[in-house]
Design brief:
By secondary structure, this protein is α+β, with helices and mostly antiparallel strands. Helix content is about 45%, strand content about 25%.
């Protein structure tokens, strides 16, 4: 029987041993795991970049909306302030003192031997600033709008040439306050006074008379 000798047997055995070497397999596995890790890290990094871009876009959009909201609030505040001023002007217009009504009332006053020689209206206004609403630990404290107070003083200069000059002064003073027009607008408690009374004088025709001045203070109007 012939004997066969495989001269490559040893080489093949060594090659087979190398193929089955666990270290080499571990290296292959490690390389595969490293490649997979790199792929995962790259995809994660890409997702993170995309998310950051999206976040930046949303933040920019939010900031833009916040700015627009602030502008709207400022505009609303300006509109509210303008409307408040317009309302105040409307009130002032509707409640303003009418000179024509005063003159019409004065011409209805008649006291014998008394002549009205001059009238004067002193009109003044004082402004009280408003107080904005405030928030404290107890809640919201309501504010107060600005207010305007109107003060009126009517001064009447007249001449009493009655037989007893001076006797008609108080009658004329009372005649003014008894008119319905003045009853509702005069300060009848402390706002009516005789501010001056002249000594007895004589006119060119020798008729005696006195000059007197009456002061009527109206009730203050606050709006």
């Amino acid at each position: 029987m012939p004997v066969r000798i495989n001269l490559l047997a040893e080489t093949l055995a060594m090659e087979e041993q190398r193929r089955k070497d666990p270290v080499k397999r571990a290296i292959y596995v490690g390389v595969l795991l490293l490649a997979a890790s790199l792929v995962w890290w790259s995809s994660t990094l890409l997702k993170d970049m995309i998310n950051k871009q999206e976040l930046a876009r949303i933040q920019a959009q939010t900031q833009s909306l916040t700015n627009e909201y602030s502008q709207v609030q400022i505009s609303r505040q300006k509109i509210s302030e303008a409307q408040t001023r317009l309302d105040a002007l409307d009130k002032l217009t509707s409640a303003r003192f009418l000179q024509g009504s005063l003159l019409n009332a004065l011409q209805m006053i008649y006291v014998p031997n008394v002549q009205l020689t001059r009238l004067r209206i002193d009109q003044s206004y004082s402004l009280t600033g408003g107080v904005p609403a405030k928030t404290n630990s107890f809640g919201v404290v309501a504010g107060r709008p600005a207010m305007t107070t109107e003060r009126l003083v009517l001064t009447l200069d007249a001449k009493d040439f009655s037989p007893s000059p001076g006797d008609q002064v108080n009658k004329y003073k009372s005649a003014v306050t008894q008119l319905d027009y003045f009853k509702s607008i005069l300060d009848l408690n402390n706002g009516v006074r005789l501010s001056s009374l002249s000594p007895l004088q004589s006119s060119p025709d020798g008729k005696p008379y006195v000059l007197f001045t009456l002061e009527y203070r109206f009730l203050d109007k606050t709006q």
